[in-house]
Amino acid sequence: IDKYAQRDLKKGLHLYGTDGNIGLTNAWSIIQTDFRCCGVSNYTDWFEVYNTTRVPDSCCLEFSENCGLHSPGTWWKAPCYETVKIWLQENLLAVGIFGLCTAMVQVQYSINFQILINCNQISNHRSRYTL
Q1: Which pTM value belongs to this model?
Q2: What are the pLDDT tens digits along the chain (131 aa)?
Q3: What is the 3-state secondary structure (H, E, C) of the chain?
């Protein structure tokens, strides 16, 4: 599973910074900045994306405009896949509880919405026959 996930993430790197992919671009920028990592397996993953020796500025130890053009000594070395995977494993309980709570809220909203629609239909049905 790890191999396939990493392969798909590397394919997704090619969408970074492209039109219509602002969410993916922002997600990679946030992950690399917050987790202090670069690329899926390492920073060289970006070399294939850019077809040159460079990385996004979010890979830089100290952020500045075009810092991704400098030498590898100024970039995060940790692989994002492993770093995020370890974080998820360490925080699995919290992530699970958050996911469960989110699902419960969505189900409750769906139930409330269905009740509201049904009440509205009953009200409309009654008003038709009371005139």
Answers
A1: 0.71
A2: 899 999 999 999 999 999 999 999 999 999 999 999 999 999 999 999 999 999 999 999 999 999 999 999 999 999 999 999 999 999 888 888 988 999 898 988 888 888 888 777 766 666 665 55
A3: CHHHHHHHHHHHHCCCCCCCCHHHHHHHHHHHHHCCCCCCCCCCHHHHHHCCCCCCHHHECCCCCCHHHCCHHHECCCCHHHHHHHHHHHCHHHHHHHHHHHHHHHHHHHHHHHHHHHHHHHHHHHHHHHC
CATH code given to domain 1-92: 1.10.1450.10
Which tokens go with 40?
Answer: 């899926």
- For residue 99, what are its two tokens? 């996911």
Domains of the chain: which residue ranges?
Answer: 1-92
